[in-house]
Amino acid sequence: MKYLSTRGDATPRGFSEILLEGLAPDGGLYLPAHYPKVDAATLARWRGLAYADLAFEILSLYIDDVPAADLKRLVSSTYTAQVYGTPEITPLKRLEDGLYLQALSNGPTLAFKDMAMQLLGALFEYELGRRGQTLNILGATSGDTGSAAEYAMRGKRGVKVFMLSPHGRMSPFQQAQMFSLQDPNIHNLAVEGVFDDCQDIVKAVSNDLEFKRRWKIGTVNSINWARLLAQVVYYFAGYFQATASDAERVSFAVPSGNFGNICAGHVARMMGLPIHRLVLATNENNVLDEFFRTGTYRVRGAAETHETSSPSMDISKASNFERFVFDLLGRDTSRTRQLFHDEIGQRGAFTLTAAEFARVAEFGFVSGSSTHADRLATIRDTAQRLGTVVDTHTADGLKVAREHRDPGVPMIVLETALPAKFSATIVEALGREPERPAALAGIEQLPKRFKVMPVDAQAVKDYIAQNG
Ligand SMILES: *Cc1c(COP(=O)(O)O)cnc(C)c1O
């Protein structure tokens, strides 16, 4: 399988070549040259597979430059019951007739980002070892992504992580999760500023091309194709658990921010998985809902981006969205470049033609949004009536899922985090603390390892030069 860029660079690249990369050189995103189609016989055979074996089958269709035995070993050591708590890895829970929750948040940091990031850690260590190279991963986090990256990369050979976070602004639980890591290859840098300051420092360091090359600076952000690919697997796993035969269809509801999770659902559907609808749910930051309702995509500035109680969906620009639009436009690279490079670059918005927008329905997408009040009501209703406590992001998905039910089609809501991560809102909704997995009891009391830094890119560079 070769990979190409959404903006026209068609240099054929293998999976291993794009694994450690971010954007394509022309500013586009990498996608496979085509989506392998899964026929009925294959689907029937996959139905019986354990999660790791299913993951191996799906990944093998997209990765032909890692020997099969090696890929099998990497996948099998990643998706284990020890790490995810159950042999199903992403078990399905019935809420009521035809409505399910699929648990994607039983990994080490209690959020769905572990599903992909854990595999990325294994793949990075493997590929760097094969090349005899090292990598210094630099990132900024306000919580979820940073901890998932650190838990994926801890103890991995050839990789060091330098993670910037706003000093004193993460929740005590999130701080404890990240700062209690004692692995020498993990560096927590607590910046005396806000999240935007952290992001600006990462940009400043990455824009110093000489420093970037010398210190082998890389990232693990959500545009990485390997992360997206790893997420395709759980759509198949959810489908098999919700159906008895491959003649049935299901819909998925996905709490969305950067469009990474639901883009994996789009890929699964393009491969032939019988997905009826992909229901995209946003919070008050409804850039994507607006697009799916109107055909206009308008990115927002910091002033227009709300801080909400489902913070991992507080985005103003969906970094993976270009992948879907590229497919929607029949893979027209010059039109994609026009929309994302010219129009977004110049005016921060584009509007599809009526003919282009009409095709959205063929791809199964529908959408909706949710507010803080909706979130509280959904958490309360789900706890009181159905006996299940859901986190704030999952509540957004559940609220919008209910607006798009079709008779006879099971609806699977992706559970993207455990309620323990967002306890303040759970207390607001239910008047009690959410349960916390036993392994994480009292992590706030563990010794913390972090370094306080001024808002100064040079200080971060100096730190990397000493420790990288
Ligand atoms: C990252 C995240 C999301 C949004 O996922 P995208 O792939 O960015 O659309 C939703 N919920 C939680 C808990 C997350 O951590």
How does this structure look, described?
The chain is an alpha/beta fold and 468 residues long. It is 43% helix and 15% strand. The protein has helices at 15-19, 40-46, 51-60, 68-78, 81-84, 113-131, 144-153, 172-179, 195-207, 209-214, 225-242, 260-270, 287-294, 321-328, 333-347, 354-358, 372-386, 392-402, 423-430, 457-467; strands spanning 3-5, 30-32, 92-96, 99-103, 135-140, 159-166, 186-191, 217-218, 250-255, 275-282, 296-298, 349-351, 365-369, 411-415, 451-453. It has a 6-stranded mixed β-sheet with strand order 3-4-14-9-10-13, sandwiched between helices. Strands 8-5-6-7-15 form a 5-stranded parallel β-sheet, with helices on both faces. Helix 11 (225-242) crosses helix 12 (260-270) and helix 17 (372-386) crosses helix 18 (392-402). The chain starts with a strand and ends with a helix. The structure holds pyridoxal-5'-phosphate (PLP). Pyridoxal-5'-phosphate binds at residues 111, 113, 144, 222, 255-261, 312-313, 393, 416-417.
